[in-house]
Amino acid sequence: MQVQADETEKDVGAQVAARLATAIHEHRLAPGMKLSEDEVGEIFGVSRTVVRAALQRLAHLRLVDLKRNRGAFVAQPTVKEAREVFEARALLEPRTARSAAERITPTDTRILQRHIDDEHAALHAGDTGRALNLSGQFHIEIARIADQATIADFIAQLVSRSSLIIALYWQRRAALCESQAHHALIKAISAGDGARAEELMQSHLLDLLTSLDLRAHSSAPQSLREALGP
Ligand SMILES: [Zn+2]
Q1: Which of 214, 127, 140 is nearest to 176 (CA)?
Q2: Residue 6 pLDDT more than 50?
Q3: How far away, in angstroms, is 59 Cα from ligand 1 center?
Q4: Domains of the chain
Q5: What is the pLDDT of residues 181-193, one digit of tens each?
Q6: Within 13 Å, how many C-alpha atoms sit on residue 162's CB side?
Q7: Could you tell me the distance, in angstroms and rounded to a whole number, from the CA of residue 135 to the centre of ligand 1?
Q8: Which of 67, 40, 70 is nearest to 52 (CA)?
Q9: How far is the CA of 78 from the centre of ligand 1 (A)?
Protein backbone atom coordinates (compact mmCIF):
# COMPACT_ATOMS: atom_id res chain seq x y z
CA MET A 1 0.00 0.00 0.00
CA GLN A 2 1.29 3.47 -0.86
CA VAL A 3 1.64 5.43 2.32
CA GLN A 4 2.37 9.16 2.31
CA ALA A 5 5.29 10.21 4.49
CA ASP A 6 3.27 12.83 6.33
CA GLU A 7 0.53 10.47 7.36
CA THR A 8 0.40 9.58 11.00
CA GLU A 9 0.35 5.99 12.18
CA LYS A 10 -3.26 6.45 13.14
CA ASP A 11 -4.27 7.31 9.58
CA VAL A 12 -2.36 4.33 8.26
CA GLY A 13 -4.10 2.13 10.82
CA ALA A 14 -7.44 3.48 9.61
CA GLN A 15 -6.51 2.68 6.00
CA VAL A 16 -5.49 -0.87 6.87
CA ALA A 17 -8.72 -1.28 8.85
CA ALA A 18 -10.75 -0.02 5.88
CA ARG A 19 -9.05 -2.44 3.49
CA LEU A 20 -9.64 -5.36 5.86
CA ALA A 21 -13.27 -4.30 6.38
CA THR A 22 -13.89 -4.27 2.63
CA ALA A 23 -12.35 -7.74 2.32
CA ILE A 24 -14.69 -8.94 5.09
CA HIS A 25 -17.72 -7.26 3.49
CA GLU A 26 -16.85 -8.84 0.15
CA HIS A 27 -16.45 -12.27 1.78
CA ARG A 28 -12.81 -12.52 0.75
CA LEU A 29 -12.00 -12.98 4.44
CA ALA A 30 -14.36 -15.56 5.93
CA PRO A 31 -15.83 -15.55 9.44
CA GLY A 32 -13.48 -17.32 11.82
CA MET A 33 -10.37 -16.76 9.71
CA LYS A 34 -7.25 -15.93 11.70
CA LEU A 35 -5.69 -12.54 11.01
CA SER A 36 -2.04 -12.94 11.86
CA GLU A 37 -0.42 -9.64 12.82
CA ASP A 38 2.81 -10.54 11.03
CA GLU A 39 1.09 -11.57 7.84
CA VAL A 40 -1.23 -8.57 7.72
CA GLY A 41 1.77 -6.32 8.41
CA GLU A 42 3.75 -7.90 5.54
CA ILE A 43 0.86 -7.65 3.08
CA PHE A 44 0.33 -3.96 3.75
CA GLY A 45 3.97 -3.14 4.47
CA VAL A 46 3.19 -1.69 7.91
CA SER A 47 4.41 -2.28 11.46
CA ARG A 48 2.77 -4.56 14.01
CA THR A 49 1.77 -1.46 15.97
CA VAL A 50 -0.22 -0.21 12.99
CA VAL A 51 -1.78 -3.65 12.44
CA ARG A 52 -2.75 -3.84 16.09
CA ALA A 53 -4.42 -0.43 15.91
CA ALA A 54 -6.32 -1.54 12.78
CA LEU A 55 -7.47 -4.75 14.45
CA GLN A 56 -8.59 -2.84 17.55
CA ARG A 57 -10.64 -0.58 15.35
CA LEU A 58 -12.30 -3.56 13.64
CA ALA A 59 -12.92 -5.22 17.01
CA HIS A 60 -14.71 -2.07 18.08
CA LEU A 61 -16.94 -2.43 15.00
CA ARG A 62 -17.39 -6.11 15.92
CA LEU A 63 -15.97 -7.31 12.64
CA VAL A 64 -13.00 -8.89 14.43
CA ASP A 65 -12.72 -10.90 17.67
CA LEU A 66 -9.56 -10.38 19.67
CA LYS A 67 -8.87 -13.53 21.66
CA ARG A 68 -6.43 -13.50 24.57
CA ASN A 69 -3.15 -15.16 23.72
CA ARG A 70 -4.54 -16.40 20.41
CA GLY A 71 -4.77 -13.30 18.29
CA ALA A 72 -7.35 -11.79 16.00
CA PHE A 73 -10.04 -13.59 14.04
CA VAL A 74 -12.76 -12.45 11.66
CA ALA A 75 -15.87 -12.37 13.87
CA GLN A 76 -18.47 -15.13 13.76
CA PRO A 77 -21.81 -13.71 14.91
CA THR A 78 -23.98 -16.20 16.77
CA VAL A 79 -27.59 -16.92 15.76
CA LYS A 80 -28.71 -14.66 18.61
CA GLU A 81 -26.52 -11.79 17.38
CA ALA A 82 -27.72 -12.39 13.84
CA ARG A 83 -31.35 -12.01 14.93
CA GLU A 84 -30.55 -8.95 16.99
CA VAL A 85 -28.81 -7.24 14.10
CA PHE A 86 -31.79 -7.76 11.81
CA GLU A 87 -34.24 -6.75 14.53
CA ALA A 88 -32.31 -3.52 15.01
CA ARG A 89 -32.32 -2.91 11.27
CA ALA A 90 -36.08 -3.51 11.17
CA LEU A 91 -36.48 -0.88 13.90
CA LEU A 92 -34.35 1.74 12.20
CA GLU A 93 -34.43 1.37 8.45
CA PRO A 94 -38.14 1.56 7.56
CA ARG A 95 -38.46 4.87 9.37
CA THR A 96 -35.24 6.07 7.73
CA ALA A 97 -36.56 5.12 4.29
CA ARG A 98 -39.60 7.28 5.03
CA SER A 99 -37.37 10.23 5.94
CA ALA A 100 -35.31 9.67 2.79
CA ALA A 101 -38.49 9.90 0.69
CA GLU A 102 -39.20 13.26 2.28
CA ARG A 103 -35.78 14.66 1.40
CA ILE A 104 -34.61 12.98 -1.78
CA THR A 105 -33.18 15.08 -4.63
CA PRO A 106 -32.73 14.05 -8.29
CA THR A 107 -28.96 13.69 -7.63
CA ASP A 108 -29.68 11.24 -4.79
CA THR A 109 -31.92 9.22 -7.09
CA ARG A 110 -29.08 8.96 -9.62
CA ILE A 111 -26.67 7.83 -6.88
CA LEU A 112 -29.08 5.11 -5.77
CA GLN A 113 -29.62 4.01 -9.35
CA ARG A 114 -25.86 3.83 -9.90
CA HIS A 115 -25.58 1.53 -6.87
CA ILE A 116 -28.05 -0.87 -8.45
CA ASP A 117 -26.28 -0.72 -11.83
CA ASP A 118 -22.91 -1.43 -10.20
CA GLU A 119 -24.44 -4.29 -8.24
CA HIS A 120 -25.83 -5.82 -11.45
CA ALA A 121 -22.47 -5.43 -13.19
CA ALA A 122 -20.72 -7.17 -10.28
CA LEU A 123 -23.25 -10.03 -10.33
CA HIS A 124 -22.81 -10.46 -14.09
CA ALA A 125 -19.07 -10.53 -13.64
CA GLY A 126 -19.56 -13.31 -11.07
CA ASP A 127 -18.22 -11.11 -8.28
CA THR A 128 -20.82 -11.98 -5.64
CA GLY A 129 -18.75 -10.50 -2.84
CA ARG A 130 -18.63 -7.09 -4.46
CA ALA A 131 -22.34 -7.29 -5.31
CA LEU A 132 -23.10 -8.08 -1.68
CA ASN A 133 -21.04 -5.14 -0.48
CA LEU A 134 -22.79 -2.80 -2.92
CA SER A 135 -26.22 -4.00 -1.87
CA GLY A 136 -25.28 -3.09 1.70
CA GLN A 137 -24.02 0.30 0.58
CA PHE A 138 -27.43 0.94 -0.94
CA HIS A 139 -28.96 0.78 2.55
CA ILE A 140 -26.30 3.09 3.98
CA GLU A 141 -26.94 5.53 1.13
CA ILE A 142 -30.65 5.69 2.01
CA ALA A 143 -29.71 6.62 5.59
CA ARG A 144 -27.39 9.34 4.23
CA ILE A 145 -30.22 10.73 2.10
CA ALA A 146 -32.47 10.76 5.18
CA ASP A 147 -29.88 13.14 6.68
CA GLN A 148 -29.87 11.36 10.02
CA ALA A 149 -26.17 11.12 10.84
CA THR A 150 -26.49 9.27 14.14
CA ILE A 151 -28.91 6.71 12.75
CA ALA A 152 -26.81 6.44 9.59
CA ASP A 153 -23.79 5.46 11.74
CA PHE A 154 -25.82 2.75 13.44
CA ILE A 155 -27.15 1.48 10.14
CA ALA A 156 -23.65 1.42 8.61
CA GLN A 157 -22.46 -0.73 11.53
CA LEU A 158 -25.46 -3.04 11.30
CA VAL A 159 -25.07 -3.43 7.53
CA SER A 160 -21.39 -4.15 8.06
CA ARG A 161 -22.18 -6.92 10.56
CA SER A 162 -24.94 -8.21 8.26
CA SER A 163 -22.29 -9.17 5.72
CA LEU A 164 -20.74 -11.56 8.28
CA ILE A 165 -24.17 -12.93 9.10
CA ILE A 166 -24.91 -13.52 5.44
CA ALA A 167 -21.53 -15.24 5.00
CA LEU A 168 -22.40 -17.62 7.83
CA TYR A 169 -26.11 -18.20 7.49
CA TRP A 170 -27.12 -17.45 3.96
CA GLN A 171 -29.18 -20.24 2.42
CA ARG A 172 -30.25 -18.77 -0.88
CA ARG A 173 -29.08 -16.20 -3.30
CA ALA A 174 -31.90 -13.88 -2.26
CA ALA A 175 -29.87 -13.00 0.81
CA LEU A 176 -28.11 -10.71 -1.60
CA CYS A 177 -30.63 -7.92 -1.52
CA GLU A 178 -32.92 -8.71 -4.37
CA SER A 179 -32.50 -5.93 -6.84
CA GLN A 180 -36.25 -6.00 -7.44
CA ALA A 181 -36.77 -4.89 -3.85
CA HIS A 182 -34.21 -2.14 -4.30
CA HIS A 183 -35.88 -0.99 -7.54
CA ALA A 184 -39.21 -0.73 -5.78
CA LEU A 185 -37.57 1.21 -2.95
CA ILE A 186 -35.94 3.69 -5.33
CA LYS A 187 -39.30 4.19 -7.03
CA ALA A 188 -41.16 4.93 -3.79
CA ILE A 189 -38.40 7.07 -2.28
CA SER A 190 -37.82 9.16 -5.40
CA ALA A 191 -41.60 9.65 -5.79
CA GLY A 192 -41.61 11.07 -2.25
CA ASP A 193 -43.96 8.30 -1.10
CA GLY A 194 -42.75 7.94 2.49
CA ALA A 195 -45.46 5.54 3.64
CA ARG A 196 -44.79 3.15 0.77
CA ALA A 197 -41.00 3.41 1.23
CA GLU A 198 -41.39 2.52 4.92
CA GLU A 199 -43.59 -0.47 4.11
CA LEU A 200 -41.25 -1.71 1.35
CA MET A 201 -38.20 -1.47 3.59
CA GLN A 202 -39.99 -3.37 6.34
CA SER A 203 -40.89 -6.26 4.05
CA HIS A 204 -37.48 -6.22 2.37
CA LEU A 205 -35.72 -6.67 5.72
CA LEU A 206 -38.14 -9.43 6.68
CA ASP A 207 -37.33 -11.17 3.38
CA LEU A 208 -33.64 -10.89 4.12
CA LEU A 209 -34.08 -12.33 7.58
CA THR A 210 -36.13 -15.30 6.34
CA SER A 211 -33.54 -16.06 3.69
CA LEU A 212 -31.02 -16.81 6.42
CA ASP A 213 -30.93 -20.19 8.09
CA LEU A 214 -30.99 -19.26 11.75
CA ARG A 215 -32.12 -22.58 13.16
CA ALA A 216 -29.74 -23.79 15.86
CA HIS A 217 -26.75 -23.48 13.62
CA SER A 218 -23.58 -24.89 15.08
CA SER A 219 -20.52 -23.17 13.75
CA ALA A 220 -17.85 -25.70 12.88
CA PRO A 221 -14.54 -25.38 14.69
CA GLN A 222 -11.94 -23.53 12.63
CA SER A 223 -8.88 -25.37 13.85
CA LEU A 224 -7.74 -28.44 15.74
CA ARG A 225 -6.99 -26.22 18.70
CA GLU A 226 -10.55 -24.91 18.69
CA ALA A 227 -11.97 -28.41 18.30
CA LEU A 228 -9.79 -30.05 20.95
CA GLY A 229 -8.73 -27.22 23.22
CA PRO A 230 -10.21 -26.39 26.63
ZN1 LIG B 1 -31.41 -4.41 0.41
Answers
A1: 127
A2: no
A3: 25
A4: 9-76 (1.10.10.10), 79-210 (1.20.120.530)
A5: 899 999 999 999 9
A6: 28
A7: 6
A8: 40
A9: 21
